[in-house]
Design a protein that fits this description.
Layout lengths: L6 E5 L3 H14 L9 E6 L1 H11 L6 E5 L16 H7 L1 E5 L2 E7 L4 E6 L2 E6 L5 E7 L2 E9 L1 E5 L7 H4 L11 E7 L10 E4 L4 E5 L7 E5 L2 E3 L2 E8 L5 E5 L5 H9 L3
Parallel strand pairs: 1-2, 2-3, 3-17
Antiparallel strand pairs: 4-17, 5-6, 5-16, 7-10, 7-14, 8-9, 8-13, 10-11, 11-12, 13-16, 14-15
């Protein structure tokens, strides 16, 4: 019989997550993320995203357990369960993040990753005025709006869905381009794009109508141009209990009433 996986136990500051961390560490032990076979994230979806951003470069699979407010990316936590057995039986889902390159009025260039979405938002009372190019071709010359976002399938059930964007099946190799409170053109409701599409947002009148860009929780203010594409060099494997993988959860969300 093979030995159980080495676990790196990571927990949010929430009291419930910290209590679970102590209980699991006493039972299974734990090690540094760099030495682990599997990263175990204890918290909500926000903490899972923090874990992916901080440790995604290690290439280690991540098994999350819900000990927070929202847990779409997490498995259920049951005290006393055989955690190594659950991990051994878990099903992997591979996520590819979006890579954002944001250029600012000051001349800076900022690169960041997003596992959920990249969103552009107006910074003042003035609406944003944004031009959208796909693979170097202008597809929308002027979008007057509160903002616009590009979402991954994993992130399509979050902010994107709240903005009336589509829920995307995992593995469909597509992204959701969704406006936020569009004013002009009034009837444009977004688009579904192939995952290899390079999307460039150009900010029109950036001095009068300043815009910020956010990759998950990393915000860059006063942007003039934002380039977004799926990262082909970075991917992370999320582990889910059998019958409750991310693909199934996304499917369930599409039939929720």
């Amino acid at each position: 019989m093979s030995s159980p996986p080495r676990l790196a136990l990571l927990a949010s500051p929430a009291e419930e997550a910290q209590a679970a961390l102590a209980q699991l560490a006493a039972r299974h032990g734990h090690c540094r993320p760099e030495e682990a076979d599997v990263l175990v994230a204890l918290g909500g979806d926000g903490f899972m995203l923090q874990t992916l951003h901080r440790y995604g470069g290690l290439g280690k699979p991540v098994y999350g357990m819900k000990l927070g407010t929202v847990g779409f990316l997490m498995n259920q936590y049951h005290q006393g369960d055989d955690l190594p057995a659950r991990i051994a039986a878990a099903e992997p889902d591979l996520l590819h993040p979006l890579e954002m390159v944001a250029h600012t009025e000051s001349g800076a260039s900022v690169t960041s990753l997003a596992y959920n979405e990249v969103s552009l938002l107006r910074q003042t009372r003035q609406t944003a005025n944004i031009r959208i190019e796909l693979n170097g071709e202008v597809r929308l010359g002027e979008l007057v709006c509160d903002g616009v976002m590009l979402a991954t399938p994993a992130g399509s059930t979050a902010y994107n869905f709240s903005a009336h964007g589509p829920i995307l099946p995992l593995g469909a190799n597509v992204m959701a381009l969704t406006p936020i409170a569009p004013f002009r053109p009034r009837r444009w409701r977004g688009a579904v794009l192939k995952s290899g599409t390079e999307v460039r947002f150009r900010i029109l009148e950036p001095h009068k109508r300043p815009v910020s860009a956010t990759a998950d929780s990393h915000e860059v203010r006063d942007v003039t141009e934002v380039l977004v594409r799926e990262s082909d060099k970075r991917g992370v494997s999320l582990l889910f209990d059998q019958g409750h993988n991310l693909e199934e959860r996304i499917l369930i969300e599409q039939f929720a009433v």
